[in-house]
Amino acid sequence: GAVVSQHPSWVICKSGTSVKIECRSLDFQATTMFWYRQFPKQSLMLMATSNEGSKATYEQGVEKDKFLINHASLTLSTLTVTSAHPEDSSFYICSARRLRLGETQYFGPGTRLLVL
Amino acid sequence: AQSVTQPDIHITVSEGASLELRCNYSYGATPYLFWYVQSPGQGLQLLLKYFSGDTLVQGIKGFEAEFKRSQSSFNLRKPSVHWSDAAEYFCAVERNTDKLIFGTGTRLQVFP
Questions:
Q1: B104 interaction partners in chain A (CB closer than 8 Å)
Q2: What are the mean pLDDT values of chain A's consecutive 10-residue runs (116 residues total)?
């Protein structure tokens, strides 16, 4: 149990376009979902935390107008990279959790974004 | 500020040898502690976690970790490494704000 999927697994887009990444909890309801960004050979950096039905909370330095997060249901969160530029190329990973405390985050397989 | 340190960026071991990956944290109270493994181009898989109780935690794939409060450490161990264990390993702590803070990772390479 506790499977999290992401779609697409990889995407290539032109500079200036917007890209949407989906994160789904397949067999549980996720009250909280997290979005991370990982550069090559580096650790995961939390971008934002989203709770179902409310606005996402962004980490310092993350542009909320650039990275739009929607958590419309207990099983789906989306990250939209707006007006993507080459520097947005990265590996984006989501995670989901059922409860606020004492519950493990389950990670999706990641989405690799390449902006040309 | 809270932080997680993994002193070893890269470790190479022979298949069958024992393994210990180090993790130290800086936090005012005892946090929740985790070890995750990441294969190339993949997401993270939870190996084990410590919340409270027995300080020696057993995880999947034959891994274990020991929480040592006096040393602020949570080192990951495996008595006999398999070639399939080659991956990136991340230690993480969770604060009461629910956010995971990851270490910089240790890349494990296994030679036959």
A1: 42-43
A2: 90 96 92 91 90 88 94 92 96 85 81 96
